[in-house]
Design brief:
- The protein is an alpha+beta fold and 230 residues long.
- 40% of the residues lie in helices and 24% in strands.
- Strand 4 and strand 5 form a beta hairpin.
- The longest helix has 24 residues.
- The protein is globular.
């Protein structure tokens, strides 16, 4: 893997929640046999029900995990951004992907074959426990996020998403550019496209304006207070 990933990408993989408890040398050994693929045009990565023979880390770009409704429409369950792993749960469970995955154009993925990963995991004592500890901690984080989201209005969910996109600047003005369409964003935060338009309009008095996929936040601190996160 060292021939395929540069130093910054190796650091990115090591920092993912799944591998945060693993030292660098062990991680390189564990992931030996992984491959890197860039998807210049994007497209479907896998379909629900396909054999889960590998999992992935996003090195650049993003991946949308989605289900199909009875009418054939996409319902986005999660958008996986740079620095996150996905589909690892499937290799430990029923060995089938539970969702569909689509990669955005320009996305670069590290794919890790399940067979070699699980074999190496069993060969080194204590390694499974470290991975489980990392997964448990990340699961607790996700559960807190879900509880917080359920207690928020659609407008607050939109505001929280824009804050997350706007970067590390704590206060003052900021920009947030949507990495997905507004239709996909509505699906992601659990509202209809019509409700999303109303939510965008309701953020204007708080200093949020939009043009296409670009949002201007006049005061991040004020928006956090609106979301109830201060």
């Amino acid at each position: 893997m060292s021939l395929l990933l540069d130093e910054s990408e190796r650091a990115l993989v090591a920092a993912t929640p799944l591998f945060s408890e693993i030292d660098a040398d062990t991680l390189l050994w564990l992931l030996d046999g992984g491959g890197v693929t860039t998807y210049p045009d994007g497209g479907l990565l896998f379909s629900q029900g396909d054999a889960a023979d590998r999992f992935f880390v996003v090195l650049a770009g993003r991946v949308s995990l989605f289900a199909l409704t009875e009418s054939g429409d996409q319902s986005i369950i999660e958008v996986v951004d740079k620095g996150a792993s996905f589909a690892e749960g499937a290799i430990f469970a029923n060995a089938r992907f539970p969702l569909n995955a689509a990669v955005a154009p320009g996305t670069r993925l590290l794919d890790i074959p399940a067979a070699s990963f699980l074999r190496r995991l069993s060969e080194r004592q204590g390694l499974s426990a470290k991975l489980l500890a990392s997964l448990a901690r990340w699961q607790r984080h996700l559960m807190r996020e879900i509880v917080n989201l359920k207690g928020r209005s659609p407008v607050q969910r939109l505001a929280s998403y824009l804050l997350a996109l706007s970067g590390p600047v704590a206060d003052g003005a900021a920009e947030a550019v949507l990495p997905l369409s507004k239709t996909d964003l509505a699906s992601l935060i659990g509202i209809t496209p019509e409700s999303l338009s109303r939510a965008v309009n309701r953020l204007k008095p708080i200093g949020v304006t939009s043009h296409g996929r670009s949002f201007r936040i006049a005061d991040k601190a004020a928006l956090r207070r609106f979301c109830g996160t201060d």
